[in-house]
Amino acid sequence: MKKYCPECKNHLIEKKDFGITIDECSHCKGIWYDAGELEAYRAVLGENRETAETTLARFKPLSFCQNLKCPTCLRDTLQCGGSDELQIARCTQCSGIYVSEKEVKKISKKRKFEKSDDDGEGKFWIGATVLEFIWDFVD
Predict the structure, then answer these.
(1) Listed residue (68, 129, 108, 131) closest to 80, CA to CA
(2) Residue 49 · residue 63 · CB < 8 Å
(3) I need a labelling partner for 32 at 20 to 30 A (CA). Which of 4, 9, 75, 139 fits?
(4) Predicted TM-score (pTM) of this structure
(5) Are 130 and 106 in contact (CB under 8 A)?
(6) Torsion angle of alpha carbons 79, 59, 11, 67, nearest 10°?
(7) pLDDT grade for 139, boundaries at 50, 70 and 90
(8) Do the beta carbons of residue 2 and residue 13 sit within 8 Å?
């Protein structure tokens, strides 16, 4: 099944990052994480914290995102939340996470990227930062 970007409606392209498959928009470069993909980052990071799914269950959204459809569920089920530091969208049905191009750029500026073992674009640090942010946001 083809997936489409919640923000610009272009195709999401599957990419490998440290062996983790993520979906990146072919146009705006926003990133979609299916349920379980952030958990895979936790394993790569070697973190001993609670699972990503347990953390996400406590995620407190600010509101439903306007005009954003979940690329997996194809419904208006994305809720937006975050802080001044980072805004993300989470699907209430499948627990997928969307990080817009604007937020990806914020993370990119904040983190010093190391090259990914697969594509050299540093997407690993985007996923790791999103996971760390979610941990901090719900703690």
Answers:
(1) 68
(2) no
(3) 139
(4) 0.77
(5) no
(6) 10
(7) very low
(8) no
